[in-house]
């Protein structure tokens, strides 16, 4: 059975594309405001008994722990996505992310409730990770399985652009707050605003997602009684190589991506003493580049194949980390922008075609499970603790070169995985 087995009406196809893009934008906005707050304020508010450097490490540790819940979320959402349908899981994952995010915005700090503050922060972060473990797989498959033949990459990109779009939205909110509030006001209550705004955004996302139809591929599976009873077991038994190459191909993208979106803010403000507003603008410019690169490379993959695009992007991620930090260390805005623009072209090339690639690696009856689990494992191995590792390396060595070499190492791992991706 192929993903283009059942044609989708043009009007419904547009609604699915918009729902995938807007829904994942909201989901990842929630996820990224946590990353930004972890870099800027969580160390001071929830780990006040530690030194500034140790507080930052602890804050990034909570960021990483959330990634550990992703494979569990991938298995959970994947199982029911393959059994009950893609649409229902999209709605539930968005609700869970919204509840956890608003909870962070309402959470008392260490000065108010002591050790319970970091404990509850960790619990809410785990719920975010559980949600993110299944969100991407559902959104990606809805877009790809509705797509017409020969355009899976292009339509799959709508779920991918939610990541940079959510990042842009998150950074814009923090930028506006930074320009409107004093540092004391931001540390006291301003950081809560982005989390509480999630109530409105989740409401919009739910309305959009409830209006789309179920994936036509899953509808055929349900009608023909071809659904897998144990999708995760079946995918491990029948597609172990696909799980390995898919997970491995995502390690570099997520590791380097989180260095860009989380560690760069912390490193720039605390070590290089660059103005926070300047760094937020740089991150927004890089995110726009990432979004455009996703759209371009995804469409390109429909013409030349997923693997050649991935190879090109993976090589760029191997060679760029050292020049990236050399340019960042100049503290000059123009070189900061050059650094992040080139970096995000590589990120786009290894992320734009991902929805189509992962969908094509797994049979429809266990596709949600296989795609979600691979995505989650790659995220854990790559991005889960990347900011924490980068902070520890820079603190212990006193140089960004150690961070660059770490990123080169993870990029080489992904390049090897990409080489073993089967040709279409």
Automatic annotation (TrEMBL):
It is a multi-pass membrane protein. This is MFS transporter. Pfam families: MFS_1. It comes from the Bacteria. Residues 16-424 form the Major facilitator superfamily (MFS) profile domain. Its main location: membrane. The chain crosses the membrane at residues 31-51, 57-77, 89-107, 155-177, 189-208, 242-265, 277-297, 309-327, 333-352, 373-393, 399-421. CDD domains: MFS_ShiA_like (cd17369). It is found in: Cell membrane. Gene3D superfamilies: MFS general substrate transporter like domains. Keywords: Cell membrane, Membrane, Transmembrane, Transmembrane helix, Transport. The lineage of its organism: Bacteria, Bacillati, Actinomycetota, Actinomycetes, Pseudonocardiales. InterPro entries: MFS, MFS_dom, MFS_trans_sf, Sugar_transporter_CS.
